[in-house]
Amino acid sequence: IAEARARTPGEPMVLLVGNIHATRRLKIPRSMVWRLLKRGVPLKTLNVAAREGSAWTCGATCGADAYHGRDLGPEPRILETPEATRGGYDGLWYVVSLTASPPAWRPEGLPQ
Q1: Whole-angstrom Cα distance, residue 100 to residue 110?
Q2: Nearest-angstrom CA–CA distance, 88 and 24
Q3: Could you tell me the pTM of the whole model?
Q4: Could you tell me the strand order of the sheet in which 97-98 lies?
Q5: For the chain, how long is the longest CA-to-CA vector?
Q6: Segment 60-98, tens digit of pLDDT
Q7: Which of 6, 9, 43, 95, CA to CA, is 20 to 30 A from 74?
Q8: Could you read off the pLDDT of 26-50 as tens digits, one per residue?
Q9: Is the dihedral of CA 63, 98, 12, 18 positive or negative?
Q10: Cα angle for residues 9, 12, 14 (degrees, 5° grid)
Q11: Is 15 within 8 Å of 33 (Cβ atoms)?
Q12: Whole-angstrom distance, CA of residue 73 vs CA of residue 62
């Protein structure tokens, strides 16, 4: 990612990753944001927020679960909020509604 950013520094680049990978709050060597910041890659991080929908989650089992969030209005938009900053993000990407998507690949042994 850092090499691709260096090749085209003026072009927009969007990476879709899980929220743990995108937070600045977790300063762990496995964090993608931690690694990119360490290499000097300028970036903005957004956490997804929605009013309703479903999300693919894994706990004792994996599957689509109902999602209920805050209603931030009828239109998708990017918001800078204290809530996002506390979570280690630069903002929220409010998409209004989410639809669960199963993983494209799952290692054997993970719960179904």
Answers
A1: 18
A2: 5
A3: 0.75
A4: 62-68, 52-58, 97-98
A5: 44
A6: 888 899 999 999 999 999 999 888 888 889 999 999 999
A7: 43
A8: 766 677 888 888 888 888 899 999 9
A9: negative
A10: 115
A11: no
A12: 30
